[in-house]
Amino acid sequence: MLAGVLSACGGEETTTGDGSTPEASSGRLVVYSGRSEELVGPLFERFEQETGVDLDIRYGESDDLALAIEQEGDRGQVDLFVTQSPGAVGYLSAADLLQPIDQAVLDRVRPEDRSAEGTWVGLSARARVLAYNTTELTPDQLPDSVFDLTDPAWSGRVGVAPTNGSFIDFVSGMRQLVGDERTEAWLAGMAANASPTYPKNSAILEAVVRAEVPTGLVNHYYREVAAQEDPNLPAANHFFPNGDPGSMLLVTAAAVPTSAADPAGAAELMSFLLSDESQKFLADDEFEYPLAIGVAPPGSLPPLTDLPVTRLDLDRLGDDLTSTIDMIRASGLQE
Amino acid sequence: MASRLGGLGIAAIGLLFAAPLAYLVVRSVGEAGRLGEFIVADTTLVPLVRTVVLAAAVGLTTAALGTAVAWATVRCDVPGRRVLRALAVVPIVLPSFVGATALLAGFARGGLVADLLGPLGVDGLPRISGFWGAWFVLSLFTYPLVLLPVAARLTGLPASLEESGRLLGGSPWTVARTVVWPQVRSSVAAGALLVVLYTISDFGVVSLMRYGTLTQQIYLAKLDPTAWLPLSLVLAALALIVTAGERLTVRREARRPLVRGPAASAVRLGRWRWPVAGMLAALVAVAVVGPLAVLASWVVRGATSGSEAVALRLDPTDLVGPAVSTVTTSTAAAVLAVVLVLPVARSLARGHQRTAPVASVLVVAGYALPGLVVALALVFWSLSSDLGAVLYQTVPLLVLAYALHFGAQAMRGATVATESVPDRLADAARSLGARPWRRFRSVELPLLMPGLLAGAGLVVVSAMKELPATLLLAPAGFSTLATSIWSAYEFGSYAQMGLDALVLAAVSGVMTWLVVLRRAEST
């Protein structure tokens, strides 16, 4: 079985005598994707072409799809759940709704990019950055640490999205990296600085571009996409150096619900998504950090080793979600 | 016997519409211990107060704005009033997050409005956010819910009423207040009730404006059932109270006279003609032209950037497929909604069934529930039986979800329509020996049609832009214009989002015209 999986992942089509594809037992897989069609659709299409397996793909918000999988329970048909935000897999993992993934698949990524219990595997990652307006600021004016942003000098000059999933995951990660006390102090400092708040990453970036606010804490990828639409975009990403928590990685992940009808097919699809070719696509076309071992990130981004990935425990991230939301609310940062 | 069966039927329809509410109760049973403490906590009370204040403010504003626009464009001799009325309805067709995003971008520093006002020396518009931002944007995008029913009511009023008033020496203002207002009062209240319920349910605008209403908090805490369940229960209770309150307090006008007079002669505004036209044009500029222009500017920017990464899906088949899915499912939903609410409306008008008032409150209040809650409820209920499991994630179930979520909008039109059919007509048909179905089809239905279509039109428009239930309940790979817009928005491709949104606005605008406005013009 493993041989079949690996050969499929190499992109070679192995067919048996009667022309059917081995391992794809039903010839059909149900996928819930919290990553948008624009991002991962081309990969799914290529998988269908190479294997002959039909994918029934439902695109949606990661959290909403996780709630649907939970609500479907035993009647669920989902073979693979692909999520944009770490919180969603953490939620399902905590509810014991995910099954262990094939070790061969897990081993495609570093131990820190997968679940300790083997219930999810990272596919790609986005770095947290400080996006800034290039006409208002020069790189040498930017701080070395996210913790410097609580300085009065930055008062009212850093956009944040306190109710957005990626900010909440970022704060959960910060709690794991530096502890609750420093995290609470940082949130209080950002609130005391009257940091303007926005609903989501893209809104912050828009505000930075039109110089409504000179900087903002976002995921690195929004600026890259916006620069494609507007080559003269007056915004750049600042990566906090020296492993600062401000530039931690947030992974996107894949997981197999316990009710999956075809876990072997799901493993085949995960292997495909983690193949060199697919990972290069995510890096070069979508500006994301590939997580498969041996695949280089896009040239415009600093190497993975410079970023403080390091054991962001997604399983705990799910558990911590509520307390993180409470912590952000208590800080006064959120209206 | 027939009456008891009828009563059971009405009760069954009420229960069907109460499915999302029942889901909340079932899910909450396990959490009962924490519910009490959660409901009285600040985390619930503060969002509750915000929700009430915002809903009241938006409801009052749209009641005034929608009524004024309806009166001016239906009853007054404003230049270009037909075009203005058709355009004034357009804001309702845009998904609220699209409209809000476009307005924000338009008013922002460096945005379209600033570019226009810059040469006039205006610099630094106030940033739209918080309570005032949510109030402004929601009012601007929901007043057509008042405008449409009030305009329909005004169109149908015989001119003789106003003429008598004027012959007795009343000024236009006095006539409007003493003669016209009592006739439209309940239409205004019904429209404003829909606005209030929509405001309670809205996530798109309040999240962009960062105003923490109950729905915003529900979405924020959606991975924590101990938080979102009690918040949803509080929201549902609020919706039921508001809806029942409106039923109990608003006086119903006397049954509308069947006699249709000749078309009302226009109220002469004299030197106010052009100022009023100017104000209407300004409203259309801010609520319609502005957002559409921003969307168009994104399309142009993306199309001219020369970057391959933002290649617009201009291929007609990519747009036609979702457009056809959107139109067919939303039309089916409107038909189903009307079929479901019509019996309730008839019983209500005739006072036949004691279950009717309760059923009507359940139908209407359900409109306030956030779309995600409705979607999860349908996942739950359809998978709780083998038959439902077969229907799960099929088009019929999606259509049912739309009909249950938006049935409230068909309710009002159906009630007004049934009230306008005098009992003596049915009696006459009966005495001539017509059987019930034939009586309904040949006597009642033709008279009901305009009211039913008005309600159906609103359901169509709402279903066309529905997102959370569509994403969870449609068959895999089924895309509508709303899901295309969302997909592009998530990806950050404003050009594609703008294009899809313009197509939605165009298709939706045409549907509204065909179903609602054209009828109103011809009656």
Oligomer: heterodimer
**Structural class, from secondary structure content of chain A?**
alpha/beta
Q: In the CATH hierarchy, what is the class of chain B?
A: Mainly Alpha
Structural class of chain B: mainly alpha
CATH topology of the largest domain in chain A: D-Maltodextrin-Binding Protein, domain 2
Helical percentage of chain B: over 70%
Question: What's the helix count of chain B?
Answer: 25
Pattern of helices and strands of chain B: HHHHHHHHHHHHHHHHHHHHHHHHH
CATH class of the largest domain in chain A: Alpha Beta
Number of structurally distinct domains of chain A: 2
Shape of chain B: globular
Query: What is the H-and-E element order of chain A?
Result: HEHEHEHEHEEHHHEHEEHHEH
Calculate the mean pLDDT score of chain A and round it.
85
Which percent band covers the strand fraction of chain A? 15-25%
Taking the alpha carbons of the first and last residues of chain A, their distance comes to 53 Å
Beta-strand percent range of chain B = under 5%
Helices of chain A, by number, come to 12
